[in-house]
Amino acid sequence: MIEDKELKALISLLEDPSDDIFKVVNDKLKSMGTPIIPQLEYAWENTLSQFYQERIENLIQDIQFSELSTELKNWNDKNSQNLLLGTFLVAKYKYPTLDFDTVRKQVDALIADVLEIYDERFTPLEKVKAINHIIFDVHRFSRNDTQFYAINNSYLNKVLETKKGNSLTLAIVYLLIAQALNLPIYGVNLPKNFILAFMDERCDNERFKDDVLFYINPFNRGAVLGKREIDHFLIHQQMPSKLEYYSPCKVTVIIHRLFLSLIFSYDQKGLKSDVKAIGQLVDILKKQQ
């Protein structure tokens, strides 16, 4: 393991004007991963060279992105049913130091509030009414109409903080609560909206629309819908009727759509480097959809 003195000397070489030396040093430091970030930050704080600071900033970002790519691949390969972890990893793109336990405790607090008024003997509609009351009446979650395409609408930590989100992130908050209650509620990848399906029994695999008791629209305060409302929505949007617009989707599909939402938001702001980087994260998910 490299000693602190050697590491400091190596970091100082990031300022070398030779591109060849810089590339070798940068690659070497990048391979060391996140443990060296505190030393890089110390070096950044103790220099007045903007050139040196920019190289350090870029290296830190490269290290964090590489770590995120590895974590996302591991999630995709081993934990792709874990919606909270998947959504957390999406948020780590912009907030690389985000703490998972902090996010989990915020979600757990919502779950605890629902449990205070929840009874297993409730009918499916009564269970949905209890969740709706806590999310939309007590905690006042709402759709971000004034900034519909805001980047933070797609980051769970910011949605939990501001209580505002888009159709997908509000549905994710709803799903996380439903999962904790062992309710057979699943995401439905409806274009231009994202809704939920309350199934007639708990299921592990994708189910057909005939197995749906009713649909839930978190973007409209948890309003309950039937198949007819989806039919009308698709007709109004001039979109074809497809089975996938009525049926539960996999968690990987939810995370993939969350990344696509981010790509659209960053593209709207002309942030092409972010669009490219998130596209690389999307590629990691594609093989299992």
For this entry, give a set of tags:
289 residues, alpha+beta, four-stranded antiparallel beta sheet, 12 helices
Topology of helices and strands:
Layout (H helix, E strand, L loop, with lengths): L3 H9 L6 H14 L4 H9 L4 H29 L4 H9 L8 H18 L6 H15 L3 E2 L12 H7 L1 E2 L1 H14 L4 E4 L6 E5 L12 E6 L5 E3 L1 H10 L14 H18 L3 H15 L3
Parallel strand pairs: 1-2
Antiparallel strand pairs: 3-4, 4-5, 5-6
Helix pairs in contact: 2-4, 3-4, 4-12, 5-11, 6-7, 6-9, 11-12
- Biggest beta-sheet profile: 4 strands, antiparallel
Instruction: Tell me the strand percentage band.
Output: 5-15%
Instruction: Determine Rg (CA atoms, Å).
Output: 22 Å
Helix/strand structural class: alpha+beta
Let me know the number of strands.
Answer: 6
Query: What low-confidence regions span 5 or more consecutive residues with pLDDT below 50?
Result: 202-206
Helicity level, as a percent range? 55-70%
Please, what is the oligomeric state?
A: single chain
How many helix segments? 12
Strands of the widest sheet, in order across it, are 3-4-5-6
Order of SSEs:
HHHHHHHEHEHEEEEHHH
Shape descriptor reads elongated
The span between the termini is 40 Å
Number of domains: 2
Report mean pLDDT, rounded to a whole number: 92
Question: Could you explain the architecture of this structure?
Answer:
The protein has 289 residues and is an alpha+beta fold. It has two domains: 75 residues, Alpha Horseshoe (Leucine-rich Repeat Variant); 204 residues, no CATH class. It is 58% helix and 8% strand. It is built from twelve helices and six strands. The strands form two sheets. Strands 3-4-5-6 form a four-stranded antiparallel beta sheet. Strands 1-2 form a two-stranded parallel ribbon. Helix 8 links the parallel strand 1 and strand 2. Helix 6 crosses helix 9. About 2% of the residues have low confidence.
